[in-house]
Amino acid sequence: MKDAKAVTTPMVQIHVTKHENDDLLDTEDAKFYQKALGLLLYLVNGTRLHPGNRPCVSDDREARYVLVYRPRMLMHIGAVDRSEVWLRPQTIRSFPPIYECVGAAMQSARFRRCFPAQCLLPRPFFSPCVPLLRLPGVTSFPQRDAMKSPLVAKARPNALHRKRASKPNRDAAESVKTCIMNNNQLNPEGPLEMSKQWSSRSRFQDFSDDDRSNRYSFSDIGRTDESSSSHMLDETQLSWMLEPKSMKKKPVIDFGCVSCNRKCFWWSIGILGASVIIIGLSLVIWTFTPKKHSTPPTVDNYTVALSKALTFLDLQKSGALRSGANTTSWRGSSALLDGQAILNSTAAINLAGGFYDAGDNIKFSFTGAYAMTLLSWSVIEYKAKFQAAAELDHVKNLIKWGTDYLLKTFNSSSVDEIVCQVGMGGGKIPNDHHCWERPEDLDYFNDTRRLGIQVPSGSDLAGEMAAALSAASIVFKDQPLYALKLLTSAEALYAFAKKRPSRYVDSDSLPVSERVFYNSTSFDDEIIWASSWLYFATGNATYLDDATISAIDNSNQAGANAFGAFDWDSKLAGAQLLLTRLRMLQGPGYPYEQALRQYNNETNLVVCAYIPQFEIFHRTKGGLVLINPNATQHLPAAVNAAFLAALYADYLKAADVPAIECGPDMFSPDVLRDFSRSQVDYVLGKNPLNMSYLVGYSDKFPLQPHHRAASFPSDGKRYSCREGWKWRDRDSPNPHVLVGAMVGGPDNYDRFNDTRSSSDQNEPTLAGNAGLVGALVALAAATTGVSKSLDTNFIFAAIPSHMTPPAQSGAP
Q: Is 19 in the active site?
């Protein structure tokens, strides 16, 4: 091989070429190899890197020198003239690894004066020092200070290694020194020169990991025609083997049975200490930080009043009170002998149970059934609100207490008579209104005033009872057997009502003295009321026919019923609203549409009349609506109107009706709720007297309600009919607070007389409180956790899905 002249300082580019099967080489690898090869070329033949050279992974073969990197296989340094050098790690594993020695040598001045051609700085996983054979045309080693090269200045150990090299070894410098001395002695002219034989043999030759044989040994790579080269290679190899690899021992800490690295030990101690500090600070902060106690959601005033209104119904219970069923200490079991004596009959009937009607001790089936219907309607529409207020079980128990008693008042298998009341309010003295006794003393002073009264006819009475049992059967759908019993009895009562159309007060069996108390004006409204509830409970269209076939005759403008009134006597407004719900949310269509539209229009007229703007009804200066100015009590009618208005507003929202049409004006459903709220607020204390007419609510309420049970002290004594008068007539608050009782209320001028003798203004009633319960639950806010105000579909559970009727002949 002819000698080549020394190369000056040409400008070249170096590219690191990524092998097609290599997925490990990245830009940092390329940068590392470029710097390493550039430094080598400068020290070997004085070649400078081109200023535009960049660390990159490229397939550019136009560069002067190309370094091909294949992980764990081989490193290939070549030039464009295809005179290549292949260095295979498998063939040089027998050489002592001096990777650490190179790192140490780079920090010494000796490295700056000369760079051993046999030592190329490899990647960290190239443990052996890879000898570099002379490139074609390179015959001399440049005699210049390596520090003059900007490449060497930039290629300081931290930059070259990128934290890849191990720590320097003190013995590494001696290994490099031996390597350099042997190299200079064997070949003073410079690095080995590669023979043409090797070049032709290994050009374009590839090596793989599977080729682990010594097919091309290191001696074959360095074999040339000059014997000195082979000899020199052997001497270089021996010089490397003279220095054994010395590993620096890592400091350890011995605990006897366990030893660990000192660095790892101190790191563990630091982490453990930091953990203890963090946990300690957390405990201190948790201990001394003020705790935020979770508070239950605020209960609105209507929900509070609702619970109290239901409590009054508990105080009105008659019969055997189970232990724990009533938390009121001053009420106990009473009237257990009711039904032992029946007027004009020798047969005894067990009539214990039910509710006392008002402040007296009489039980009326007519008003009692009406109260149960209203309670059931409230639960059907607002079941979720009762549940959110924790009153659902309570109100259902009250309803069942009432319906259980109603089932005792007739023979469901063959209805021929109905017990309309227990206890005589008038007539021969002593009677109930003449006497003033505790309910618990009635059996002790038993006499004729506890007679049961049966009537053989009465469509109004039977119709109201059928409505109560039908509505209750919907409430108790979760108790199928009981619901079926209620529904079967309701259908029997309805058949009785239609068979003998009449008012129960017209029956000869009812004493004249008793007809003045609840003298019903008509029975047609009860028939519509009962048939409507039976349709919702059964889905039988026959009942819907009965409810709609006489719609024109049952108009609330015909005069038979007081316009806008809804109470124990007049059910038409309630029945029309109930059927309006059917039209708005179910839509049975033909042949019921015309009658249902009429009911819908009349419902609109009623609720529009409630709006103060139209001045249809008189009002007190304090804002109380007077549905019937001649009535003795005004609050029951007002809260009933509030219940209907709020309920209709919810129907409109459920049907996505944005406004109600009142003549030429349109009103939002919220206007109806505002009216309802104004009437209930009046009851709760927003009135000229600032008095709550709901006993036990707020700080100011009636102290002397006309109520027998609440007026007697708990002294353990029994007081006969006339002995109790002293408790009736004394001018002092009742010994017991009649919690939840809504009294009759003020007169037409907002005046109120809080005396026990004023029964018109200061006596609560079962029916009045039932209407108040409906109004309160309708207005109760959703802050109790209720996401939906109205239960839209529960009432329709028994009604089959509506099917569009077939088109009439001639229709397109």
A: no
